[in-house]
Amino acid sequence: MDGGHFAIRDWSEDDKPREKLMHKGKDVLSDAELLAIVIGSGSRNESAVALSQRILANVGGLNSLAKLSIAQLMKFKGIGEAKAVTIVAALELCARRRSEKAEETVKITSSKIVYNMMQPLIGELSHEEFWVLFLNNSNNVISKSQLSKGGIAGTTVDIRLIFKLAFEKCATGLILCHNHPSGTLIPSDADKQITKKIREAGNKLDVKVLDHLIITESKYYSFVDEGIF
Questions:
Q1: Are the C-beta atoms of residues 79 and 103 closer than 8 Å to each other?
Q2: Is the distance from CB of 149 to CB of 118 less than 8 angstroms?
Q3: Strand order across the 220-222 sheet
Q4: I want to staple 155 with a disulfide (CB 3.0 to 4.6 A). Which of 54, 145, 148, 213 is the partner?
Q5: What rounded mean pLDDT belongs to the chain?
Q6: Gap between the Cα atoms of 86 and 35, Å rounded
Q7: 48 and 42 in contact (C-beta within 8 Å)?
Q8: What is the C-alpha to C-alpha distance for residues 147 and 5, in angstroms, rounded to an integer?
Q9: Residues near 200 by Cβ (< 8 Å), separated by ≥ 6?
Q10: Are 8 and 21 a contacting pair, CB within 8 Å?
Q11: How far apart, in whole angstroms, are the C-alpha atoms of residue 202 and residue 214?
Q12: For residue 212, how many other CB atoms are within 10 A of its CB?
């Protein structure tokens, strides 16, 4: 073919990502091959695998890819709106699966367990979100809810809503979580103040606030572990 380019359909059977997955299993595929299956096709001048390799090399891997918005993905030549939406949806499913797997832990016994549960949801976001884990008497997670979503610098929290949800879920304990997109683990004065207010409200309403975690991509800060509680 002209220019030395071969579309995936022209590859040998062993080199086609879909066929390789069907016949050899998912574990043998590279990240680029899996991404190529997700986006479905390349262009006249570039196969889906080559396009995927170029994207991953440019952003630095899957973790960085998961942080990109639809608009940012569309800046790559060969990625239109439909492909960008598909990539975002696929990566979000991965994050939710990781979170659900972490929730299989029967009991919260450490801040690390909370981090493992929440990091897939908020650890890699470019904006700040505030979440609450609702626990029963045995410290089992009943459910988790996003309370607010803000910008890079912060978000607001409705304390009344937290305890309304706690009563609806018959929760006896809460764990507060929010992310710092900047990567810093140092709690701000606002973080400390809102934690104090929620704890004081919980004491009056007999719903104990057990901890507050600040979560980043690879680390976390626990108010309890650091002796703030």
A1: no
A2: no
A3: 141-149, 129-135, 173-179, 208-215, 220-222
A4: 148
A5: 88
A6: 10
A7: yes
A8: 50
A9: none
A10: no
A11: 20
A12: 28
For residues 172 and 228, the model is more confident at: 172
> Which residue in the block uniquely carries the two structure tokens 């980043």?
216
| Tokens representing residue 131 in the block | 């979440």
Per residue in 6-17, pLDDT (tens digit) is 566 665 554 588
Look at residue 125 and tell me whether its pLDDT is greater than 70.
Answer: yes
- Write out pLDDT tens, residues 33-72: 999 999 988 888 888 999 999 999 999 998 889 889 999 9
C-alpha–C-alpha distance, residues 218 and 143, integer Å: 24
> Hey, is 152 helix, strand or coil?
coil
- Rounded to two decimals, what is the model's pTM? 0.61
* CB proximity list for 215: less than 8 A, separation 6 or greater: 115, 118, 119, 122, 123, 177, 178, 179, 180
Instruction: List the one residue out of 227, 204, 203, 201 whose CA is nearest residue 212.
Output: 227
Give the pair of three-digit tokens for residue 102.
């972490």
Any alpha helices (H) in the chain, and if so which ranges?
17-24, 31-39, 48-59, 62-65, 70-73, 81-103, 111-122, 159-168, 189-205
